[in-house]
Amino acid sequence: MDIVILAVVIAVVVLGALGGLIVGSRRKKQLPPPPPATPDITAPPAEPHVGDEAETPREEPRRTIEEVDLPDGSAPVTVEEPPAEAPEIEIPEPTAGRLVRLRARLSRSQNALGQGLLTLLSREHLDEDTWEEIEDTLLTADVGVQPTQELVERLRERVKVLGTRTPVELRTLLREELLTLVGRDMDRVVKTEPEDRKPGIVMVVGVNGTGKTTTTGKLARVLVADGQSVVLGAADTFRAAAADQLQTWGERVGAHTVRGPEEGDPASVAFDAVKEGKEMGANVVLIDTAGRLHTKTGLMDELGKVKRVVEKHAPVDEVLLVLDATTGQNGLVQARVFAEVVDITGIVLTKLDGTAKGGIVVAVQRELGVPVKLVGLGEGADDLAPFEPEAFVDALIGE
């Protein structure tokens, strides 16, 4: 019995020892790893000097603040600003034959007149209804009543004499009659070179919205292209930015611009422009006047004052009236009033490439008794062309 009890005790002791070993091994596995030893910090390598080989920087003697020479403030420090770039001077394209080059642009909007007349005249029998249609075509094109009646009468006579009408004969007949109507013998030269003095003086007038300031700038390009030196007078002092606009046009071609304060006296600006033009020896002075409603009597009187003040220097050589060709017969009303205030010497028709009707050329010349000298055929800087009757008529009737 004692032996059995002793064996049981020994077994319990052995089992307890084995259990302790197992628990101890598990605890050892769950313990976190010990923290790593502190790494040795190595100083970064010295930055290399400029050159092919790098070397460790050496200690060099340094000066204290007392040893450094500081400015005493007696001489001001001047900071040089970069010079402002002068605007690039453009070289306008030659004016000779410019209308011929722009002929396609003109013909796109004007063929209704020329082609319409050719179609009607090509009918085998020209009865009264046909002649009435011809009259309607001319009137619709803004030719005007009196010129229309004259043209129809001449066409009747020539067709009757001609008899059989071939397309070539009809085109030749119509071209000759339209040239007569437009006026091939009128003097269309813009007078800018008086024989006895310099500079030539040109005033540009017109109502609001006709493109007067832009036309003045384009005219400066026309004159520069013809080898003349130009001074611009920004006498439109009532419209905001008008002087800036004109000056920009002038800078493009190297033309000097004379301007005054906003809402200043336009006559004073015009007077100063001519004075500076004389001093500079310029060939031409172009004066851009304010766009005035032709119904405003006081403003129209102001325009007359500008002309009188300028003529204290010298007579005005040209007064160009700018008309919007798309206004048609309404432009004639404007033309009449301006002609009463200043002596108009020439017409500038703008926007003739748009919806304008070519007959306005005839009507405005008949109304004022002065020629169309320039026409605007687009928005480009060089789209202002001297008016050439032959090129204009050829564009009307097409190829």
From TrEMBL:
Comp. bias regions, Basic and acidic residues: 49-66
Membrane topology designation: Peripheral membrane protein
Binding site residues for GTP: 206-213, 288-292, 350-353
Substrates-to-products reaction catalysed: GTP + H2O = GDP + phosphate + H(+)
Main subcellular location: membrane
Record region (Disordered): 26-85
EC number: 3.6.5.4
InterPro entries given in the database record: AAA+_ATPase (IPR003593), P-loop_NTPase (IPR027417), Signal_recog_particl_SRP54_hlx (IPR013822), SR_rcpt_FtsY (IPR004390), SRP54_GTPase_dom (IPR000897), SRP54_N_sf (IPR042101)
Function according to Swiss-Prot or TrEMBL: Involved in targeting and insertion of nascent membrane proteins into the cytoplasmic membrane. Acts as a receptor for the complex formed by the signal recognition particle (SRP) and the ribosome-nascent chain (RNC).
Name of the featured protein: Signal recognition particle receptor FtsY
